Amino acid sequence: MPCRSFLWSGVADVKNPDLEQIQVFLADHAQDDLVSWAHEQQVMEQFGVTCSEVDELIMQSGFLPARYQRNRHMISISQQLQLLKSRVAVVGCGGLGGYVIEELARLGVGHLRVIDPDIFEEHNLNRQLLATIDNLGTSKAAAALKRVQDINPAVGIDPRQVAVGFDNGIELLTGMDVVVDAIDNISGRLELAQLCSQLAIPLVHGSIAGWFGQVSCIKPGQGTMQKLYANRTADKGIESTFGNPSFTPAVVGSLQAAEVCKILLIQGELLDEGILTVDLLQMQFDTIPVS
């Protein structure tokens, strides 16, 4: 039975008799605190529950879905459950966004809202993870939906084929724990930063151009984006001149995914004191203040 990964429901929707039977089943079939995908499927088929509901019950019972076993030495079961209950919006499903979506889904972030107005074109094929020959001409957000369902059916995915702006941003971003900026134009980034500040949501910014990239975690009210682009003269950055290869979005998107993870789990040091600059040609990483 396919999982209803596009729905978002909680364990409270499971009836009490079923809940007790599921808990017994999980206890009987867990091996070394791990519950296999095959046994999760059995629970879904027998009790008519969603993947996210089963995952939540597994972790509430002190076990771990087996697909997360390589997370367990850096992410505890309670933290994995926190990720499952988290909501992240990824604005842009292209070069950066494709990698962010992929990694957050594999990490186990429970709800992703993926937002992009565009369709795939041939020039996307050199660098965008979600771009395939078969996807040419199709919605980037729809491609993200299919990819996430194939990777991790416990993740609720909400695709929106629209551009985020002042007219719809409040509706699109309200309720999110973190927003990821994977936009390819400056005006869009500035609007997104303003919306996140208004909604008091942390924003993880990333941009790329050729061998170079930058990442920052922007807390509400910091105004980092406005300072960063205060002297802009065009809507496109230097990526319009340098282009982008296959590896730069993979590196910067991974750094953004790591920042999202740290925010959701309240761990580690965030890139909120400036901008991390990435120079893959000289293999140099520096953090510079923004004032």
**Total count of helical runs of at least 4 residues:** 11
Largest sheet: 8 strands, mixed
Strand content: 15-25%
Q: Count the E strands.
A: 10
CATH superfamily of the largest domain: NAD(P)-binding Rossmann-like Domain
Let me know the average pLDDT. 92
The strand order across the widest sheet is 5-4-3-6-7-8-9-10
- For the record, the CATH class of the largest domain is Alpha Beta
Ends distance: 54 Å
Unreliable stretches, pLDDT < 50, 5 or more residues? 1-9
Count up the domains. 2
Which fold name is given in CATH as the topology of the largest domain? Rossmann fold
Q: What structural class do you assign from the helix and strand content?
A: alpha/beta
How helical, in percent, are the residues?
25-40%
Order of helices and strands: HEHHEHEHEHEHEHEEHHHEE
Q: What does the radius of gyration come to?
A: 20 Å
> Oligomeric state of the chains?
single chain
Tertiary shape: globular
GO molecular function: tRNA threonylcarbamoyladenosine dehydratase; ubiquitin-like modifier activating enzyme activity
Protein name: HesA/MoeB/ThiF family protein
InterPro entries: ThiF/MoeB/HesA (IPR045886), ThiF_NAD_FAD-bd (IPR000594), Ubiquitin-activating_enz (IPR035985)
